Amino acid sequence: MVESASKTKRLGRATRRAAREAEVTPRLSTVRYRVKPVEVVSADELDRIHCASLKILQEVGIDFRDEVALAQWKVAGADVRGQRAHLDGDLVESLVAMAPERFAMTGRGADTDVEIGVDTLTFCAMQGAPNIRDLDGTRRASTIADLRKINRLIQMSPGFQIGTGFACEPTDIAVPWRHLHIMHTNLVDLDLATNGLTTGTARAEDCIAMARIVYGRAFMDENAVLWGMISGNSPLVWDATMLEGLRVFALANQVVLIAPFVLGAANTPADVVATVAQLNAEALAGVAYAQLVKPGTKTIYGQYSVSVSMKSGAPMSGMPEISLLNGIVGQLARRYNIPWRTTASQASSKLFDAQSGYESATAYMAAVNARANFLLHAGGWDEAGMVHCLNKLVVDGEQNLLMAKYAQGVSFDLLDEALDAVRRVGPGGHYLGDPFTLKHFRNAFIAPEILNYEAFEQWKAAGGKDMPSRAREKAEDLLARYAPPALDSSKREELDAFVARREQEISPNLA
Amino acid sequence: MVESASKTKRLGRATRRAAREAEVTPRLSTVRYRVKPVEVVSADELDRIHCASLKILQEVGIDFRDEVALAQWKVAGADVRGQRAHLDGDLVESLVAMAPERFAMTGRGADTDVEIGVDTLTFCAMQGAPNIRDLDGTRRASTIADLRKINRLIQMSPGFQIGTGFACEPTDIAVPWRHLHIMHTNLVDLDLATNGLTTGTARAEDCIAMARIVYGRAFMDENAVLWGMISGNSPLVWDATMLEGLRVFALANQVVLIAPFVLGAANTPADVVATVAQLNAEALAGVAYAQLVKPGTKTIYGQYSVSVSMKSGAPMSGMPEISLLNGIVGQLARRYNIPWRTTASQASSKLFDAQSGYESATAYMAAVNARANFLLHAGGWDEAGMVHCLNKLVVDGEQNLLMAKYAQGVSFDLLDEALDAVRRVGPGGHYLGDPFTLKHFRNAFIAPEILNYEAFEQWKAAGGKDMPSRAREKAEDLLARYAPPALDSSKREELDAFVARREQEISPNLA
């Protein structure tokens, strides 16, 4: 017997009509995991990695290339020699224990609160691309107009709970001014909690100041509306620029994401377990430092990890070693009881083609099966991060809905009622007209829009469109329906004036 | 700090040279899982599903539309009313317990043995497509020449451990003669254990007879060289055609794969848990029947499951509900201690595009994270099974290698040696020239060939080829290098004569 589409029975008319009347999908709120994650290593093996990380911090030490941080570590009792801090395991563990296991992030729009915790799942689109692949497939350097367009797509896509800040680089704006314009579109075109830039004290302070114009200082003293990326410089270095940003964000009660930057076999050993031991040492030192700056700082334990092609030197996506690394990092983060971040939808393809799909879905499933809590780059990432693909952003927005449904597992609430249907239908029957089906099919199985399930002939008659073409149509529809979220005009004026004033104050030429 | 390719450090020359010298990948042998699988339901919840399945078999009953089977069930003490058998839980469980937890399958080639067990992973390409999507992208009805071509690609791809039989339908051959030609190419063009057809006694017997020509009857009495697909007719029906095939294969000591055919919300209730309860009832009845036919029959617990689009009635791939279903079925199969089968690389796209990639990788990762033991359709499946895409077959062959590496988890053997490298390199260094890297990078991170990791400019200079184009080049290279596996000329003549004789005996017109 052949397992193919030809065996599908046709659905009843009433069922089809009801399906068409399905409502618009609401934005994902807090997604709570029910699926129990994979375990890549045993409890003993996990302990061995944890101990190896502590030993690295103690014996090899870690560089904090920042005088303030070194002074703080000294005060805390660390053995500091030059820029190198040798951190005792007890000190690290006692600081890490101060990081909260969950916290809220709050946007200015209705129903935009999301809880980031050790058992939740939050999706955030890619950041940092110097190029975009536009809706028509054109690849070019990205501009502020592109960033605005991306923010509008994120605002209109229910699969993103949070903003990503610099989804692409606005290369048409002088580097010293970029953070102002990035922050402006994030606060104006989006109503979600979002990312603020952390590259040095002045920029971080500008971002906090702009967010305070919109949210108010008192509100932000109590609520996190921004998260900042604190990237490590592997192996075993934290640079001043990032540590400055960390301090500004932590002291303003905003979220810091501590992320060693792993290029497996290039800046870590050519071994998965040892790579984890090193990145965990780096992450623990960063998390501990955030708590040293301010106990209770809302911290996400992170990493960005790829393996590196020994042919071209380029980072590789969707690789099994990185999936395994994710599984172990998830086990470690649960041991430390801190929410953790990984990368989903990571792809290396130069086109939004099958490779891009394979790599992205592998990264998604690796992350969700490892119970990652903060999925960065879960939208648009292609070409190893060198492009933000707008069609892919919209496709990934839909994938996020599928992943959220998977993470949330199954419900037993309808089992007894459904078993009555089994009795009613019996051997050889079918369920299409059964009352249980009519009542529950809408919520039972998710129905994507961009993924296409037509038969070949239907699909061909409707134009034979590939996935990027369908995504483009979807994106154009979202942009056409986009309306800026309401913002008090005085706040908007103050934001605009802030950007104008800081542009006057900051030289547009790089120092 | 931006997480992108621009940060990649260039590799050392010695490292690159060593990479180029990497050897040809050997065929996967037995892949043993080390990653501990996801759990979708708790132990109590699993018990509830198991009990619901037994209750369905007892109270609702299941149709065996086959007089022999009904008589056997009566003898075994089942409550048979007409074609419906009401099966007691103890009877079912005692029969299911007779199914072995592992067994070998053996091909005629060197190193083609593979163990199918509750902790192993075996990859098998798709079967049953009525069309192919040829290397140049053309979609057309498939022929016996296509099937031969596919078998040659499988033979040349190290990611397939076993043959799939009717990878596509040879539509240019009369239906009553097809099984002869399908079996002929599987025995001649491949040297792997493979699939034999099970649609009725006569065809199944022909397939066994042909395999005996190649392997010898005595050898096959002790060793499994063929597996047969026994598809259920959900809800709750086993048809005579399939049961006849089951009996022939079980009595000849070959493997039977018991697979209910689930179209969620069409032939099962619109509820994931109840769908599992029903399909588990069907599978248990099938597995139990195989043991009733012959205790100890080598049985794979299976299912083919998709949800159904309520817009078009078409099956949907890569859906979260089916990933969840896989997780639960895996938990059940481990409870019963029987190897289980699911579908990997299931896609619905009408082109080998990004959709196909997303769907395929989602299905792969769902299967492997659920610790599936037999991954059917893990190669070539697209358009909901209506086409065998030859480029996708080759891509999936590579994906199988990645999935196998993931399933096998991590090793701690090199940890101490690698931590010495961490000490050597220290903060701010790099690992590219380190002795540990040079010694171990080859095995540390897998290096795919069809997935492309070049930078945009390199890729463009090399022709800017999309994934299907690169897969086509790979496929053409494999076909050019293909040489038929050696087969004793007298056996080949006997096989040819068997086909000729049976064509004389069987009317080419359908009864």
SSE diagram, text form:
The structure is a homodimer of 511-residue chains.
Chain A: H1 13-20, E1 31-32, H2 43-60, E2 62-65, H3 67-75, E3 79-81, E4 84-86, H4 89-96, E5 102-105, E6 114-117, E7 120-123, E8 131-133, E9 139-141, H5 144-156, H6 175-188, E10 194-195, H7 201-215, H8 217-222, E11 226-231, E12 237-239, H9 240-251, E13 255-259, E14 261-264, H10 272-293, E15 299-301, E16 304-308, E17 315-316, H11 320-336, E18 341-343, H12 354-369, E19 374-376, E20 381-382, E21 387-389, H13 390-407, H14 415-425, H15 435-444, H16 456-461, H17 467-481, H18 489-505
Parallel strand pairs in A: 2-12, 7-19, 8-21, 10-11, 11-13, 13-15, 14-16, 18-19
Antiparallel strand pairs in A: 1-7, 2-4, 3-4, 5-6, 8-9, 16-17, 20-21
Helix pairs in contact in A: 2-10, 4-10, 5-6, 5-17, 6-7, 6-18, 7-9, 7-18, 10-11, 11-12, 12-13, 13-17
- Widest β-sheet, arrangement of strands of chain A: 1-7-19-18
C-alpha end-to-end distance of chain A: 71 Å
For the record, the CATH architecture of the domain at 96-407 in chain A stands as Alpha-Beta Barrel
CATH topology of the domain at 96-407 in chain A: TIM Barrel
Rounded mean pLDDT of chain A is 94
Rg of chain A, alpha carbons: 24 Å
Enzyme class (chains A, B): transferase
InterPro entries (chains A, B): MttB-like_sf (IPR038601), MTTB_MeTrfase (IPR010426)
GO biological process, one term (chains A, B): methylation
Pfam family, one (chains A, B): MTTB
